[in-house]
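Bug report

Summary: structure tokens for CTP synthase differ between web form and batch submission.
Environment: batch mode, default settings.
Steps: 1) Submit the sequence below via batch. 2) Compare with the web form result.

Sequence submitted:
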Amino acid sequence: MSSFDTKYIFVTGGVLSSLGKGITSASIATLLKQSGFCIGILKIDPYINVDPGTMSPLEHGEVFVTTDGAETDLDIGHYERFLNTSFTSKNNFTTGQVYLSVIERERSGGYLGKTIQVVPHIVDEIKNRIKLAGEGREILVVELGGTVGDIEGLPFLEAMRQMKQEYGMDRVISLHVTLIPLIKAAGELKTKPTQHSVQELRRIGISPQIIIARSEKEIPLDLKNKLSMSCDVDSDCVISAHDAQSIYQMPLNFYKEGVLSPIARFLKLPEFNPDMKEWDILVKQILAPQNEVTIAFVGKYLRSKESYKSLIEALIHAGANLDTKVNIEWIDSEEIENNEESLEKLRYVGGILVPGGFGVRGVNGKMQAIQFARENNIPFLGICLGMQLAIIEFCRNKLGILQADSIEFNKETKEPAIYLIENFIDTNGEEQIRTHKSPMGGTMRLGEYECYTKKDSKLQKAYNGQSKIYERHRHRYEANPKYREILEKAGMIVSGESHGLIEAVELVDHPWFVAVQFHPEFTSRLQAPNLVILEFIRQAINAKSHSSK
Ligand code: GLN
């Protein structure tokens, strides 16, 4: 099918935010993909930031990094995890990017002296970006961030209205995700906010064809009929999206609710059925697993667990594939610093995980946890900052280099075990490294790079013996190769490298202690769990079963 024929499913949100538009979009796209369609998916964010790269994780949640190094919204992570597909910078754009490119074009004379306005120029730029994301796809699912009624969402809704006008009803449909609140005192589900939200959409010229009704409880038939009547949609077009135990149940629930038949009818698609057999098995293993293991997650952004979204999901994927429930014991690294006794909690877990992070706050607590894992033979996985701290901890406590530090925490350190890659690039002229100048200053190494694994290492075994793997990065600092020899002599070997950069270290005399500079969580999917995370969980399960004997 040529890009000319691409069909579009627009997903808008009503009443309030956080209704799960991302999961709804990903679930519907999954059903279509499993039915054999070539699917694309796009998230539009109405905020003015050019990308979320500079936002605090506490403000925005995780920054998800694509293979081509784009810093994107965390919903792109959901899309990849559900669709088992890698997306790129084309699959997410913001108001900031739209305005930036229109203004840059205006400054360089690209509009030939015309007055630049929201309609048509901004809206045209939006339409072009949507069409670009849909190129070569049979169906593009477009999720519009924010809530209908927001001022900043208007140009996007106008773009959607125009595309419907341009392409016709059988190429553009609108799906509205809205809240049906349960009023506990009356025990009643209320439809009024949804009616108002649909009216607001109609006022700007959009009549949604499908209503996704989010609710605590399943929406009964009489209420569906009422919604169908008041929102002017066909009776099979009100889909109940009631709370589920796991987000991975949602595609199955939507399928049962019959969402595919109105989509097929409106878009005039040939008959199809999704193959959800494998998905169904994995979901059963999430809901009723045979086994259980607890992982200590030593982080510092615990007020907003959304900052660790991909990693939390990656643990679920590993668990689902090993038929094991992975419980997370959240450990605040600053709490360890204030109260050493909290380290004792680590004695009872299957494995210790130190994730990525920025800044000096909480790093000592993380290093105490790393030391505990090292000295007590507890399976350990360090990610990004987690690897950098594993090296510093080893230098300080095993090699006696007490001043060992990262330039990130101490610019003046005499022992920069972790240093700036800018220096590295300068001294070695490694030009093949893709780096992005950050607007905050400094250079970030972003996106996918190859990593060569050491023969017979724990890392290579985890990756099923592959000597070359691909993983994604988001960091500024690097392990300093000056320390490599002394680290290796003392038992911390480099087990992954990329063009002279240290990508992974591990301990020789430890059951399983592996730390990686990349973020394995970004490539984990329900149907294809990340292999080093899978191995970590496998090791944690084994360690637990040995210790309970
Ligand atoms: N702060 C460290 C760096 O910039 C680690 C980053 C991370 O963990 N993502 O290198």
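Above is the batch result. After comparison, the two runs are identical; trailing whitespace caused the diff. Residues 356-358, 384-385, 408, 474-477 surround glutamine (CB under 6 Å). The chain has two domains: 3-281, 290-547.
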